[in-house]
Design a protein that fits this description.
single chain; about 1100 residues; Rossmann fold; eight-stranded mixed β-sheet; 40 helices; 31 strands; about 50% helix
C-alpha cells in the first residue's frame, strides 16, 4: 500500500517517518529502507543511529538512488565495465560530433566546440532522466513540418545516437544506472515484503518514477512524504505547492497502474519546527496574498541591506561569529543558503575564515589550475611548437624537478633573448648578460649551466612529441604517461604535497593524491575512447582540455562542527536553528528562469506537445523557483537573516526581490539592518577584521582606537604589522631599525659608481632595492636606447682611436660611412651574436644607427676643425686598478666613500705647460644640464669625473685646469628648412639643433680653444659682439665651491646609508616629475601620490651660482 504523508515545511514529515520506522524496528521489523536525496543521506544516517542505537540501526538501511543501485547489484550482480565520468563524456561527445559531421548542417561548423559539447551533454543527461532515446527524437522530428526545429531535432538525434554507440562500445555510464536498475528489478524482487519510506523529495525524474513503480509493485508498504498542504491543486499548476502536488498525482498514478492500493493521505498540520511565532507566521503567510501582517515586533526575522556582495558576506560572517561567542550556538546550528552558492563561495568563505568561523562548502571545485593538470596541459602545448609561454608554464609548476633558482635562471635567459620554438631545441649561444658584453670565463660557465637546464627541460618534451607522431589517441595517452614517468612527476607531486602540509595547507596537500588518481583515470579514458582514432597531438590536446574542463573534485569536511554553505536547489538542511539567506535580489533569488540549452522554451513546449517528456518550460520553472524560496525561508527554527545588496559588482543599483517585499509586507515591525552602518564594535568579532578596523581608524584619537592599538601592540604576531601601518599612515620614510645592519649591508667603506649616486638622489628606496638587495630588473636583449647608446659609444671610441679628427675630415663622407658600417658589423658579431635570427625590427634599428653615427661623426669633424681640444682618452677607467684612482672622501663616522666610473671621452688642450681638460659624455636623449640639479645631488656624474681628474689626474695629464663638462647628443636631428636649402645650410642647422649642453670654464682661452670663431654652434657658450662671453659658465673659484658642495652631498649620502635611511621619498620637480613612472620597484615601495617628496627647484644658471656663493659664504 502507498501512504502519502503531506505537510507544509516544518510540519514534522521527516520526524514522522523516522519515528514510524523506529516503532516498526522495535516491533521486530527488519530490512526496511529509507530512501532520501544524496545530500540528505549523511544527516539521515546520523539521526537514525541516534534514534535506534547501534544495535537496531541495521534494521533500517539509508539509501539514495545511487546507493540503491549499488545495493541491488551487490545482491544480484551488475554489469562490469569501465565507468565513465564527466570528462569521458565530454571526450565521447567531441568524437561524436566529429563522426557525425558529414550529416550535419546546423552544427557542422561547431564540431570542435567544447561549449556545444557541454550543451549536448546537458541534453543527454536530460534525455536519460526523462527516458527519451535518440529514436524518440528522430520520431518526433519526422512528425514536424520542415523547419529549423525539425532539422535541429533530427541532427541532435543523430549526434546522440552516435554518442550512445561510442559509449556502449567502451564504457558504463552512471546516468544509465537507473535504467539498468529498472531492468534488474523486473527480474528480481529486491523490495519484496519490505517497508520502504521515501523522504525529502519534491519531484522525481522519469527514470526515478520507473524505480518507484518497481518499489510499489514489490514492497509491502511504501511511505512517501511530500511538502504540500493538500492533495488538490486549486491553482491549476501555478500555486506554491503545485509542483509537489503534480508529483503526488504521478506517484498515485504509478501505484494504480501496479494495482497498489492508496491510503488516504495523512496531512500534518502542526508546525513543529518553529520555536518562534514570527517564523511560524512566515511559513504560513509567505507567497499568500491573503495572509495578514504579523502584528508584533520581532527579533527573529532580520532584513539586512548591504552595499555589495563583499559587505553582505562580511555581515554574515561577523554575525555568525557573534552568535557563536555570545549566544551559545554551534556552527552546525546554522546554515548559509544562496540560490547559486558558487557566486558567493570565494567571498563568503574568505569572510568566514577571516572571522575564524569553520565552513563546509557543499560544492565541487574545478581542477584545471591544479599543478599536475597545468603541467600536463602545458607539456602537450609545448611539445607542439616549443613556444616560450607554454614551456615556462610547464617549468613553473614545480613538477619538472628544477629548483626555483634554476627555473628563474632559465626563464630569464629565454625572455632575455626571446627564445622559443626551434631555437629552444638548439644550444644557447648568446651572452647571458645581454647585448654589448664580451665572453669571459664565468660567462661561458653560466652559458654551459643554462644549456644543461635547457636539455633537462626540453628533452622530455621532445620525447613526448616524437612518441605522439602519426599514431592514435591510445598511443598518445600512453606517451603522456611515459612522459610523467620520465619527468618523475609523481615523486615531485609528493614533494609538493609534503611542502604544502609543512606550510599548514593540509587540505591542499591531501588533494594532490586525488588529483594524481584523476589524471590516471583521464588518461585511461582517453586511451579507451581514442583507440584506433588517428589524431594529431594538437587535437589530442584540445580533447584533453575539454575532458579536464569537465572534471572537478568534492570538498572533504575538515571538522565536525562547520557552517554549511550551499545552493538552494542542492542543499538539504535539517531544521537549523539559524539560516542566513544570501542574495535576495531581483532576478537572483528567486532566479529568473532562462533557456540556455539547445532547445528554446518555445521549442521545448512544442516537443512536449508531441509526446516527449522533457523538463518543465519557463512558466513551470518560475513556480519551482518560488517553491525553493519558500523552503529556504522556512528552514530555520529560531532565527532568519535575509540579505540583499544595493548594487552589483559593477556599481549598478539593485532592488530587493519578491522575498524582500514579502517580508516587508508580512513583518512591518521586523528588524532592518544596514551592514555598512552597524556599530563599529560589531567589526571586531575576529582578530583579522579587528586589525583591519584598527588600520582604517588610525587617525582617530578615541578610546576604541587606542584600545585596539594597545591590544595589537601587545601581540608578538601583530606588533610588527602595527608599526608598518603606523609608518604607512604617517608617510614616515622607511629606515633600518638597527643601524649596524645597514653598515653590514652597505659596508663601512662605500665603493660606488657615479651612476649609483644618481640613483640614490632620485630615490633612496630605489637605491636600496637595486644595490642593497641586488634586486635587478630582468634583462631583455633588445635594441633599446641604452643598448643603442652602448653601440654608439663603442663605434665612436674605435673610430676616434684609429683616426684623428683631421683624418676623419679628410676621409670624406662616403669613406667615413664605410668605416662606420664596418665597425657596426664587427660589434654585431663580437657582442651581439651576429645578424642571424635577429628580428626585422632589430635589423632596421641597427642599420639606422649607421645613419645616426654618420651624422654624429660629421658634427665631430666640423667641431674639431674649430677646436684646439683633441681627444686624449676614450672610456677612461676611474678605478683602483685604472689609469686614474677613484674619487675618495672620508666620512664623519670613520668610513670612506670612493667613486669609480668610466668617462666616454676626455679632450685636452695644452697651453703654457698646463692641460686643460674637458669631459665629454655621449647622450642619446635630450636632457639639459642644470646646475640647480647638481646642488640637489642630481646629474653630478660628469662633474664628479671632472673633479676626480682635477684631484687625481696629475700623473696622467700633468698640471690640470678643469675646462668643463659637455653632453654631446648622439642622435639624428632633422632640421626644418626650406626645400632649396643647401647641404651647408642643413649641416649648420643640424649642428645648432645638436649644440652640446653642459658647463664650461669662464675663461676666454678655454672658450676660444673650444670654438675658435666663438659663435657657440657646438658649445653652450659664445662671444658677444662687444667681446664678452655668454653661456653656461663657471669660474675656478666657483668650481672649487661647487666641489665642496658636492663633497658635502656625497658625505651626507654615505652617512645616511650607514644610518639606514632608505625611505621612498622620490625627487620631484624640475624635470624629475616621473621618477616613479620609470622605476622598476614602484610595486613594492608603498609610495602613494600625495606622500612626501624631495622637492627639486628649477633655478637659472645665474640663480644657482648665486645660491652656491651664499652657501659658500655661510660654509666659510
Amino acid at each position: 500500500m502507498l501512504h502519502l504523508i503531506l505537510g507544509r515545511s516544518g510540519s514534522g514529515k521527516t520526524q514522522y517517518i523516522r519515528s514510524l520506522l523506529c516503532e516498526l524496528a522495535k516491533d521486530g521489523a527488519h530490512g526496511m529502507i529509507l530512501l532520501v536525496p544524496e545530500q540528505f543521506s549523511f544527516e539521515s544516517e546520523r539521526a537514525m543511529l541516534e534514534l535506534l542505537g547501534p544495535r537496531d540501526a541495521g534494521r533500517v538501511e539509508i539509501l539514495s538512488f545511487s546507493r540503491l543501485v549499488d545495493a541491488v547489484f551487490r545482491v544480484y550482480g551488475g554489469v562490469s565495465g569501465t565507468r565513465i565520468d564527466d570528462g569521458g563524456r565530454m571526450l565521447l561527445m567531441s568524437l561524436a560530433l566529429e563522426e557525425a559531421q558529414d550529416h550535419l548542417e546546423l552544427y557542422a561548423r561547431h564540431k570542435e566546440s567544447s561549449a556545444l559539447a557541454a550543451k549536448l551533454l546537458d541534453l543527454v543527461a536530460e534525455c536519460r532522466q526523462c527516458a527519451v532515446t535518440p529514436a524518440d527524437l528522430h520520431r518526433v522530428a519526422d512528425n514536424l513540418p520542415d523547419s529549423v526545429l525539425r532539422r535541429k531535432t533530427h541532427e541532435l538525434s543523430l549526434i546522440l545516437e552516435t554518442y550512445d554507440t561510442l559509449l556502449a562500445r567502451s564504457f558504463l555510464d552512471e546516468q544509465d544506472d537507473l535504467t539498468r536498475l529498472n531492468d534488474a528489478l523486473l527480474d528480481h524482487p529486491f523490495f519484496q515484503g519490505r517497508i520502504v519510506a521515501i523522504d525529502a523529495f519534491k519531484s522525481f525524474t522519469v527514470q526515478e518514477q520507473r524505480i518507484l513503480s518497481r518499489i510499489l509493485s514489490q514492497a509491502q508498504e511504501v511511505y512517501l512524504t511530500l511538502c504540500a498542504d493538500e492533495m488538490m491543486d486549486r491553482q491549476n499548476g501555478m500555486g506554491l505547492f503545485s509542483p509537489v502536488q503534480r508529483t503526488a498525482r504521478r506517484v498515485i498514478s504509478l501505484a494504480k497502474r501496479q494495482n497498489v492500493p492508496v491510503a488516504s493521505p495523512i496531512v500534518l498540520e502542526i508546525p513543529h519546527r518553529f520555536h518562534s511565532e514570527a517564523l511560524k507566521a512566515l511559513e504560513q503567510g509567505v507567497f499568500r496574498p491573503e495572509a495578514e501582517a504579523f502584528p508584533q515586533k520581532t527579533e527573529d526575522i532580520l532584513l539586512c541591506t548591504a552595499q555589495d556582495k563583499a559587505s553582505q558576506c562580511d555581515f554574515v560572517a561577523r554575525t555568525a561569529k557573534r552568535l557563536l561567542r555570545e549566544e551559545g550556538f554551534r556552527c552546525r546550528d546554522m546554515a548559509i543558503i544562496a540560490r547559486d552558492a558558487d557566486a558567493y563561495r570565494e567571498e563568503m568563505t574568505a569572510a568566514l575564515r577571516r572571522y575564524g568561523v569553520p565552513v563546509f562548502e557543499d560544492s565541487r571545485q574545478p581542477i584545471n589550475s591544479q599543478p599536475l593538470m597545468v603541467f600536463v596541459r602545458a607539456a602537450l602545448e609545448a611539445a607542439q611548437s616549443f613556444a616560450t609561454e607554454p614551456v615556462l608554464r610547464y617549468l613553473k609548476t614545480g613538477l619538472v624537478g628544477f629548483t626555483l633558482e634554476e627555473t628563474s635562471e632559465l626563464e630569464n635567459y629565454m625572455l632575455e633573448w626571446n627564445i622559443g620554438g626551434a631555437r629552444l631545441l638548439s644550444p644557447f649561444t648568446q651572452h647571458p648578460e645581454g647585448y654589448g658584453n664580451s665572453f669571459q670565463e664565468q660567462d661561458r660557465q653560466k652559458l654551459a649551466f643554462l644549456n644543461g637546464l635547457r636539455e633537462r627541460a626540453v628533452g622530455p618534451l621532445v620525447h613526448l612529441r616524437d612518441n605522439c607522431a602519426e599514431t592514435d589517441g591510445a598511443q598518445i595517452s600512453r606517451a603522456v604517461y611515459t612522459f610523467l614517468e620520465e619527468t618523475e612527476a609523481a615523486s615531485h607531486l609528493r614533494a609538493l604535497a609534503q611542502a604544502l602540509s609543512d606550510g599548514g595547507e593540509a587540505d591542499l596537500a591531501l588533494e594532490q593524491g586525488r588529483i594524481w588518481d584523476l589524471m590516471m583515470d583521464m588518461l585511461s579514458q582517453c586511451a579507451v575512447a581514442l583507440e584506433g582514432h588517428s589524431i594529431t597531438l594538437s587535437r589530442f590536446a584540445q580533447l584533453f582540455d575539454a575532458v579536464l574542463a569537465a572534471q572537478d573534485i568534492g570538498t572533504i569536511p575538515q571538522g565536525l562542527d562547520e557552517i554549511p554553505l550551499g545552493s538552494a536547489d542542492r542543499m538539504r538542511v535539517s531544521s537549523p536553528r539559524v539560516v542566513f539567506l544570501l542574495g535576495a535580489n531581483e532576478g537572483e533569488f528567486p532566479r529568473i528562469p532562462s533557456s540556455s540549452g539547445v532547445f528554446s522554451d518555445t521549442e521545448r513546449r512544442r516537443l512536449i506537445e508531441l509526446g516527449l517528456e522533457m523538463t518543465d518550460p519557463y512558466d513551470l520553472q518560475a513556480v519551482e523557483e518560488r517553491l525553493l524560496a519558500y523552503q529556504s525561508l522556512s528552514a530555520a527554527r529560531e532565527r532568519l537573516y535575509v540579505c540583499h545588496t544595493r548594487s552589483d559588482g559593477e556599481g549598478a543599483s539593485q532592488a530587493g526581490s519578491v522575498i524582500v517585499s514579502e517580508l516587508n509586507r508580512l513583518f512591518p515591525h521586523c528588524i532592518h539592518l544596514d551592514a555598512d552602518e552597524e556599530d563599529v564594535l560589531s567589526r571586531i568579532e575576529g582578530v583579522s577584521p579587528a586589525f583591519l578596523l584598527t588600520a582604517s581608524r588610525w587617525e582617530k584619537n578615541d578610546p576604541l582606537s587606542a584600545a585596539l592599538k594597545g591590544y595589537f601592540a601587545s601581540r608578538a604576531d601583530y606588533a610588527g604589522r602595527l608599526e608598518g601601518v603606523g609608518r604607512a599612515a604617517s608617510h614616515a620614510p622607511a629606515h633600518f631599525e638597527n643601524q649596524e645592519n645597514a653598515r653590514r649591508l652597505f659596508g663601512d667603506h662605500l665603493y660606488l659608481s657615479a651612476s649609483r649616486v644618481e640613483v640614490y638622489h632620485k630615490c633612496r628606496f630605489q637605491y636600496f632595492c637595486r644595490y642593497g638587495l641586488d634586486a635587478q630588473p630582468r634583462i631583455i636583449a633588445k635594441l633599446d636606447p641604452l643598448s643603442s647608446g652602448t653601440v654608439v659609444h663603442d663605434v665612436l671610441e674605435r673610430l676616434l682611436r684609429a683616426h684623428s679628427p683631421q683624418q676623419l675630415h679628410e676621409m670624406g663622407r662616403e669613406r667615413r660611412a664605410e668605416e662606420i658600417k664596418a665597425l657596426l658589423l664587427a660589434y654585431l658579431e663580437e657582442k651581439m651574436g651576429g645578424a642571424q635570427e635577429k628580428p626585422k625590427r632589430f635589423s632596421y634599428q641597427f642599420n639606422r644607427l649607421a645613419v645616426v653615427l654618420e651624422e654624429v661623426v660629421g658634427r665631430l669633424c666640423a667641431e674639431f676643425l674649430h677646436s684646439s681640444f683633441v681627444p686624449a682618452d676614450f672610456e677612461l677607467k676611474i678605478d683602483k686598478d685604472g689609469p686614474v684612482p677613484p674619487y675618495s672622501l672620508p666620512l664623519p663616522d670613520g668610513g670612506t666613500l670612493q667613486i669609480k666610473g668610466s668617462i666616454d671621452r676626455v679632450d685636452r688642450m695644452e697651453r703654457d705647460g698646463k692641460s686643460y681638460l674637458r669631459v665629454v659624455d655621449y647622450k642619446s636623449g635630450g636632457k639639459e644640464f642644470l646646475l640647480s640639479d647638481v646642488l640637489n645631488g642630481l646629474n653630478m656624474q660628469m662633474l664628479i669625473y671632472l673633479m676626480c681628474l682635477w684631484q687625481n689626474g696629475k700623473m696622467r695629464y700633468g698640471e690640470i685646469v678643469p675646462a668643463g663638462i659637455l653632453y654631446m647628443p648622439v642622435k639624428s636631428t632633422p632640421a626644418t628648412l626650406g626645400r632649396d636649402a643647401t647641404q651647408t645650410e642643413i649641416d649648420k642647422a643640424r649642428a645648432k639643433a645638436c649644440r652640446m649642453s653642459g658647463m664650461v670654464l669662464d675663461h676666454s682661452l678655454v672658450i676660444d680653444g673650444m670654438e675658435d670663431d666663438g659663435k657657440g654652434i657646438f658649445i653652450p657658450a659664445r662671444r658677444e659682439k662687444g667681446g664678452g662671453i655668454k653661456g653656461t659658465l663657471i669660474n675656478l673659484t666657483q668650481l672649487s665651491r661647487l666641489q665642496q658642495k658636492m663633497d658635502d652631498i656625497l658625505k651626507e649620502m654615505g652617512k645616511n646609508l650607514h644610518r639606514g635611511e632608505i625611505g621612498a621619498v622620490p625627487s620631484f620637480g624640475a624635470g624629475y616629475d616621473r621618477v616613479c613612472d620609470w622605476c622598476d620597484y614602484k610595486s613594492v615601495c608603498g609610495y602613494e601620490p600625495g606622500a612626501p617628496v624631495r622637492p627639486i627647484e628649477k633655478l637659472t644658471h645665474a640663480q644657482s651660482l648665486e645660491k652656491l656663493e651664499e652657501e659658500g659664504a655661510h660654509h666659510g
